[in-house]
Amino acid sequence: MRNYDLSPLYRATVGFDRVADLMDRVLAGETTQPTYPPYNIEKTADDAYRITLAVAGFSAEDLTVEVKENALVIAAKKAEDDAPHSYLHRGIATRAFERRFHLADHVKAVGATHKDGLLHIDLVREVPEALKSRRIEITRGGQIEGKAVETAEV
Predict the structure, then answer these.
(1) Distance (Å, rounded) from C-alpha 65 to C-alpha 100?
(2) Of 67, 71, 97, 147, which has the fewest beta carbons less than 10 angstroms from its beta carbon?
(3) What is the dihedral sign for C-alpha 99, 105, 111, 116?
(4) What is the pTM of this model?
(5) CA–CA distance, 38 with 111 (Å, rounded to integer)
(6) Residue/partner pairs of 70-74 with CB below 8 Å, 24 or more apart
């Protein structure tokens, strides 16, 4: 695997630390990603998303959904069954798992539902008013908010 040096990006950019950290994490991460449990990510509206995990064999009490430091962490641990089983074939995996999704800034988990062996987690992007684009009114003359702007004569 190739190693990329991202240090020139750190010298030439200001305020993009999260992007550089994300690139470092992706490039230095494991080449094999966990495939259990399978999941879908869908966009349900302009600023709304839904993550659906296939969690057959798990009840809602066996599952936990948490948000920690811009990461959505879904974990499951099946309670031990005391009754001995003699399987001829065991294709339904009910092993414990932990799946992490890194959330973008201002993305919040607003709810989770468990139905028919699927866990649905709804996410919404809520951009604060201070960060939304706004239009600045252009005035004529040298008045800005009631204050005169001094102009230098040439």
Answers:
(1) 10
(2) 147
(3) negative
(4) 0.65
(5) 20
(6) 70/102, 70/103, 70/104, 70/105, 71/100, 71/101, 71/102, 71/103, 72/100, 72/101, 72/102, 72/103, 72/109, 72/121, 72/123, 73/98, 73/99, 73/100, 74/98, 74/99, 74/100, 74/101, 74/119, 74/121
E strand or H helix at 18, and its extent? Answer: helix 17-28
Tokens representing residue 113 in the block: 């539902």
Supply the DSSP symbol for 145: T
Note the pLDDT tens digit of each residue in 41-89: 999 998 899 999 999 888 899 999 999 888 899 999 987 776 787 888 8
Q: Which CATH number fits domain 34-81+90-129: 3.40.50.300, 1.10.630.10, 1.10.530.10, 2.60.40.790?
A: 2.60.40.790
Where in the sequence of the chain do the CATH 2.60.40.790 domains occur? 34-81+90-129
CB 67 within 8 A of CB 134: no
